[in-house]
From TrEMBL:
Polar residues: bias regions: 668-677
InterPro entries according to UniProt: PPM-type-like_dom_sf, PPM-type_phosphatase-like_dom
Annotated SMART domains: PP2C_SIG, PP2Cc
Domain PPM-type phosphatase: 255-521
Name of this protein: Protein-serine/threonine phosphatase
Alphabetic keyword roster: Membrane, Transmembrane, Transmembrane helix
Region (Disordered): 668-749
SUPFAM superfamilies: PP2C-like
Chain ranges passing through the membrane: 581-599
Species whose genome carries this gene: Tolypothrix tenuis PCC 7101
Recorded superkingdom: Bacteria
């Protein structure tokens, strides 16, 4: 029964009218009303359902609350307490499977003396019209009703999560059946649990998976039994080896899945721009179907540089990347190594980056005058979808269960969260949070970090690629259910939806160009009649699928640089040699060996070669580059302040860049503090003075500050990130044209 006191306030700051919780749009201004059901981490609440906490959070049950004021930023944890939630922050690249921190409810009374941590987008089932919610089923409950493809898909996702969670000390979350929920094809965790002093092992994972064997589909029952036994017996010793085994099984099942793919693209200049700097592939207003087309590829690019050449960069990127990828996909899908393809996609992006960068250099473009572009690309191959991106153009995955943003923007806000310095909803409120930390063409490929991911598809889905002309102000989250979901129910098609989404972008936002690509993936799967052949490789080169990877540049125009083709098993070729050849071959080898030793015995001792022992210098294996933090500060590093600093009558605003000069311990300091000597870097927004005026410039300011104070006042930039302290780097993070305030919504859709 709905609580009469439950009121949902409009998020439009010019309206904020109260609405019934069941409504989708504001009664007064027609703004979409976000429904944010939040998970309470830990043992649950001691408050009764229907109570309002902190004047905004409606208690649904002991573990779920509802935010009645979604337009107001939630209270964020104090910086000193971030260590408790740092695993959530650092694992934000895996947010498809792991909830993220929304905020906290401060201590209220003896029932919550330590405050309450809230997690957003938990695996809950809601209908949006009532306050009744329930958890998505856990893995064991849903296991028996799933197809063989989905069963292996769930295990594949857990295998890919194992190493990242283990490195953050929370891998035991993958051993608790209560925490592992499934939402359609996705594995989603309710929350993270800290590991004990002894880290969990793959043996324990095998013991957990062993109980799944009995209800596994016949085609994979033997494979599941073999995998769990191999984990327990330590025949599978790493997550990489486990992923390789599951990939092999999925590839065999993939032969029973026949996808049908439709792609449609559309672009528009928008009401506020003079020219369109976006670009897409296939060309705008083109519908591509596979079959009959042999390949399917969708790309969206958002040019940076305005009149300086953003449209040139985006079109150059489209032209180059589609040629590179078409070269990669000439290999038959069942001969493609997924890990190698991910690397090759990133290398293709690096080729594009270098082409644009070289164009900038040839035209002597520097700093903010350099042209560049974002990129997001979708490549469906067999039962998989490959997504690659740089910048803040996004990819969304829409299923019947929900809408999921699968890319993480390459901006300042995401960087702070990924490094464990801030909660996302707090980070995006800071000035400059949307500034890009990387884009194609702005710097050499050695400092470029494209992101490539792959997803197993076992149900119908729509992938939306879009520039920020649509994604800004949460328009996709607001309208996916009414506009995109009908594609999956057969009520509309990609052409009509593309038209509608561009209209929404222009009328609800209208501050930028808009470009979208819709990829409709339809599945026709038939259960195999025969069992899969279990195969446990001894050594594998397959890497776990990490959402963040570093590309190595190579020339993909070279036909020898194609995606690796999986060779035939060499052992099988040896076994095929005729027996009448093998016996003479053995006799020849034995005779040759005997003759060699006889010759050696006849040689004088002085003529026998003596092994030389030159002074060979062994090159030490370089240590992996550690993440730069305030705690391990070193000379020459660059720090960006995240709050105003006032010290010795000097005032430095938020966003000031400093370079570390030195660091000295403070004698007799109780907490072993040290004094850091910093030098202010040039303001990136200040024009460079002429050479003859350099002598009249004021000296650079310096700042001496305790390390303990600096920890809560700044963040360390990582290698490759642009900053004004570098002579050859652009003066500041790459900025898109500023977004204007969105136009007020007038009519519900």
């Amino acid at each position: 029964m709905e609580n009469d006191a439950a009121t949902l306030y409009c998020p439009n700051e010019l309206c904020q009218a109260p609405n019934p919780i069941s409504h989708k749009f504001c009664l007064r201004c027609s703004t979409p009303l976000p429904k944010r059901y939040l998970w309470v981490q830990g043992d649950g609440l001691s408050f009764a359902a229907g109570e309002i906490l902190a004047d905004r959070y409606l208690v649904i049950d002991k573990s779920v609350v509802f935010d009645t004021q979604p337009g107001i930023s939630p209270q964020a944890p104090e910086l000193d307490n971030l260590s408790d939630i740092r695993p959530y922050l650092r694992l934000i690249p895996y947010r498809l499977n792991i909830p993220q921190v929304y905020g906290i409810i401060p201590p209220i009374d003896e029932r919550s003396p330590n405050g309450i941590l809230l997690l957003e987008k938990p695996p809950l089932l809601t209908d949006g019209t009532t306050q009744e919610v329930k958890l998505c089923p856990n893995l064991i409950t849903a296991w028996g009703d799933a197809t063989s493809m989905r069963q292996l898909n769930w295990l594949w996702q857990i295998a890919n999560l194992w190493q990242p969670l283990l490195s953050e000390g929370v891998a035991s979350s993958l051993l608790d059946p209560y925490l592992i929920r499934v939402e359609g094809s996705l594995v989603r965790l309710l929350e993270l649990r800290n590991d004990d002093s002894t880290a969990p092992s793959l043996i324990q994972l095998g013991e957990f998976w062993q109980q799944l064997h009995k209800q596994a589909k016949p085609a994979i029952a033997e494979l599941i039994h073999k995998i769990s036994s191999s984990l327990i017996n330590e025949e599978i010793r790493s997550a990489e080896q486990l992923i390789a085994v599951l990939d092999n099984g999925l590839a065999q099942l993939g032969r029973s899945q026949k996808p049908t793919i439709k792609i449609f693209t559309k672009t528009d200049t928008g009401p506020s721009r003079q020219r369109n700097e976006d670009a897409c592939y296939p060309p705008p207003d083109t519908l591509v179907s596979k079959p009959p087309q042999p390949t399917a590829l969708a790309i969206v690019c958002d040019g940076i540089g305005g009149h300086e050449g953003g449209n040139v960069a985006s079109n150059l990127a489209i032209e180059t990347i589609q040629q590179q990828v078409n070269q990669l996909t000439k290999v038959p899908s069942d001969h493609i190594d997924p890990a190698m393809l991910l690397t090759d996609l990133e290398s293709a992006v690096a080729v594009v980056n270098d082409k644009i960068s070289q164009r900038n250099d040839s035209e002597n473009r520097q700093g903010r005058k350099r042209m560049g572009t974002t990129l997001v690309m979708a490549l469906p191959i067999a039962h998989e979808m490959y997504i690659t991106h740089v910048g803040d153009s996004r990819a969304y995955w829409i299923t019947r269960q929900g809408c999921y943003q699968v890319t993480l923007d390459d901006d300042v806000a995401s960087r702070e969260v990924r490094l464990g310095y801030a909660v996302y909803r707090e980070a995006i409120e800071q000035s400059g949070s949307g500034s890009l930390v990387q884009a194609l063409g702005m710097s050499p490929s050695t400092s470029l970090h494209p992101t490539s991911q792959r997803f197993i598809l076992d149900e119908d889905a729509v992938f939306l690629l879009t520039s920020d002309g649509l994604s800004d102000f949460d328009r996709v989250e607001d309208y996916w259910e009414t506009e995109i979901l009908p594609i999956l129910t057969g009520q509309t098609d990609v052409v009509e939806v593309a038209e509608k989404l561009v209209e929404i972008a222009n009328t609800k936002n209208g501050h930028d160009n808009v470009t979208i690509a819709l990829v409709h993936y339809q599945v026709n799967y038939v259960e195999p009649q025969s069992s899969l052949t279990p195969f446990i490789p001894e050594n594998v080169s397959t890497k776990a699928v990490e959402p963040t990877r570093t590309a190595q540049t190579k020339d993909l125009s070279n036909p020898n640089a194609k995606t690796q083709v999986i060779p035939e098993n060499p052992r099988a070729k040896i076994a095929q040699l005729p027996l009448q050849w093998i016996v003479p071959l053995i006799l020849v080898v034995a005779a040759g060996t005997f003759g060699y030793f006889l010759m050696r015995l006849r040689l004088p001792l002085s003529t026998q070669p003596v092994a030389s022992n030159p002074d060979t210098t062994v090159q030490p294996t370089p240590e992996p580059t550690a993440v730069r933090k305030i705690e391990n500060l070193a000379q020459g590093w660059v720090i960006e302040t995240n709050r105003e600093i006032i010290n010795s009558k000097q005032k430095f605003p938020k966003g000031t860049y400093f370079q570390v000069i030195d660091q000295k311990p403070i004698p007799n300091s109780a907490n072993k503090d040290s004094l850091v000597n910093l030098q202010e870097c040039p303001n990136p927004d200040t024009p460079t003075p002429p050479k003859d005026a350099a002598a009249s410039q004021p000296p650079k300011k310096t700042l001496r500050i305790e390390l303990s104070k600096l920890q809560s006042s700044g963040i360390v930039l990582q290698p490759g990130e642009t900053n004004p302290c570098e002579d050859t780097a652009p003066a500041a993070p790459v900025n898109q044209p500023p977004a204007t305030t969105p136009q007020k919504d007038e009519n519900p859709t």
